[in-house]
Sequence to fold (189 residues):
Amino acid sequence: MTRTCLSRWLLVGALLTLPACSPRTPPTDSEQAHDSISSNAPERAKHLADLGIQRWHADGVRGQQVRIAVLDTGFRGYRSFLGNGLPATLRTRSFRKDQNFEARDSQHGIRCAEVLHALAPDAEILLVNWEPDDPHSFLDAVRWAKAQGVRVLSCSLIMPSWSDGEGGGEVHRELDRILGDGTHPQDML
Fold:
C-alpha cells in the first residue's frame, strides 16, 4: 500500500469517527462490551459505503501486510471486543511502570482500533499504552512500535505539557526523529 493510500485510510478513519463522537450518555459497565461500532452493523456499513470503503475492499485493498499501532491509555475490557469489532487476535504492550494494560477506565483506544479495523480489516493491529505522566515511556512505546514493523501509528490523545505550545520541544523533536520525515521506506505514518 502506498503512502498516499495509507494517508487516505487515515483521513477516512477520521471521517468515520465523526458519527461516534456525537454527545451521548457514557455506557454502563454492563453495556460496554456490547456498545461498539461493530454492534451497529447497518449503520457501520452505511458509513463505509458513503466513504467508498466497500469499493476499496472489493478491489482487494484491505490493509494486507500493514501493521498499525494504536497508542492510547484506554483499553479497559478489550478482550470482550476480540473478534467483535477488533481482530480475533492482536498484540498488546504496556509501557506503564505497573505494566497494567487496562489501568485507565476508558475504552477510547478500543474505539480507535475498531475504526482502523473496519477500514483495514486485514491489517495487523497492535495496542500500546504508556505511563501518562512520562513522555519517555511514550517515546519508548513509539520506538517499540517501529521496531515491530509498524507503518501506521494512531494516537489521538494530546499531552500539552510535553511541548512548547507551538508543536516543538524536546519530546516533539525526538518523536520526529523516530517517525522520520516521510521520505524513507521505514518512516512511519
Q: What stands out?
A: The first helix runs from residue 3 to 17. Helices lie at 3-17, 29-32, 41-50, 53-58, 108-119, 135-147, 170-179.
